[in-house]
Structure prediction request, 610 residues.
Amino acid sequence: MKDGKEMFDICLLGTSGMMPLPKRFLSSALFRFNGNMLLIDCGEATQITLKMLGWGFKNINTICFTHVHADHISGLPGMLLTLSNSGREETLNIIGPVGIKRICENLRAIAPDLTFDINYIEFDQGENQIVIDDFVINTLGVKHGVNTLAYSISIPRKGKFNLEKAEELNIPRTYWHVLQNGEEIDGFTPSMVMGEERKGFKVCYCTDSRPTDELPKFVSDADLFICEGMYGDSEEKQKAIDRKHMMFEEAATIAKEGNVNELWLTHFSPSLTNPQEYINVCKNIFDNTIIGKDRMTKTLKYEED
Amino acid sequence: MKDGKEMFDICLLGTSGMMPLPKRFLSSALFRFNGNMLLIDCGEATQITLKMLGWGFKNINTICFTHVHADHISGLPGMLLTLSNSGREETLNIIGPVGIKRICENLRAIAPDLTFDINYIEFDQGENQIVIDDFVINTLGVKHGVNTLAYSISIPRKGKFNLEKAEELNIPRTYWHVLQNGEEIDGFTPSMVMGEERKGFKVCYCTDSRPTDELPKFVSDADLFICEGMYGDSEEKQKAIDRKHMMFEEAATIAKEGNVNELWLTHFSPSLTNPQEYINVCKNIFDNTIIGKDRMTKTLKYEED
Prediction:
């Protein structure tokens, strides 16, 4: 399977919570598959770290917002104008919790004239799903004082095409692609030649929230779970509770319970100058924890067959 | 005169126009005198370059906006929250062209809860003046398609205190400070002992605008004139006219006609990767031209007597 659809790129654009710092941009992540991109959160200066990354702007078809606190959305007007300047004409999807449209339209007071339309999609605090490009986007309401969503970005993988079966059934070669795309043709059905759905990709993202009972199931078996770790020092536990954020150990516990493959921590408090100092707190709970760094990237590839 | 009031610090925080770049923040300037600060413009990521500068946030008592295009104001919500987090309680002054309040209040959709009040001051496109802290702030309407103001930030300097005269007139020493502050006391008046007003400081700032007939007089004899130079290449003249920006040579001409001491260019087009390339265009017109760089600073000091 070499059709350019075998790789899923993820980039953690920034790792700061609350305010952008000279060496730490605000938390957000970019996803790229088959040429299309999806951005989660867009705080002040996200467009700068995006520019540093070099994946371009034009193919960002969807921006998902976790919630409307300024450190997650303050970069939207500038981003919209930069997308406009990049020549975008296709409608941009903006997904977020209930109320996202009103906030975005307020911010558009300084970005009124765009070269594209915006399609707003508001999700409630339950579980919801929408498919855009190849991305299956699931949302789950989490706990942060204001409407907030955790995201799961999955890319399912079809079953394997059974060449021998197709030849045995004398299915004309010109029909094969149609069947691979899941459509019937001339009496032939996909189930005749397609194997069972194979393992695809799943990456989850959660900022900002206290841990919730539903999160482990929501992130279950993810290839990568990107989660906030606002504080590392156990003495700040009460602050985490009061401000509705997570401790490092709490993120690690969700990763363990959800049986994810890898955990990246992000959204560090500005007071947390060296997050690496608390890595062992996580590793004792979930070994494959990585302290996030700006523009850290990962490419997921399909397993053979 | 060594009362801590003899130095006027100016910092060009950024030099980019249109969008922030990894190595060029959006155009804005910070002024500091006697512990108080004044900021002109606050685009996306201005708070990052401010943080790099290290002068702190808390004493920014006034933010002046040239106009409401996103690259000049998109950093406001984040800045307000950062000022809040710095513990500010004093009212913040926001000065701008007519309409500034409506735009700022729209942006405050993501910065609703602040620890301080905002005092909005809207100036029309004529000439206006207000005094805040030690800053005498003059505005002039310029030409950019939307309401736009050029600023002059001056700090006047009193005349010299005539010690011999004060002793000759037998003015009690305890009265001297009162007279120096411009107040009468016990039949003695300031004019008895104070010389003529001496040369103070004057720094002017103009982005974005086409050249106007009034600008040379407005910036006349300034110690420093910070002016936009969106394009350097003469082939882009028509673009400058269409988009209502200035060429390097046009900024230099205003500096020359206004007889300013020094010109700093800023607000470079993202396409202008090496502004230094066009420095001679300016120097042929106005020799003391400097191509602006992020966080370039200057300290003006009173001349002797």
In short: The mean pLDDT of chain A is 95. DSSP finds ten helices and 14 strands in chain A.
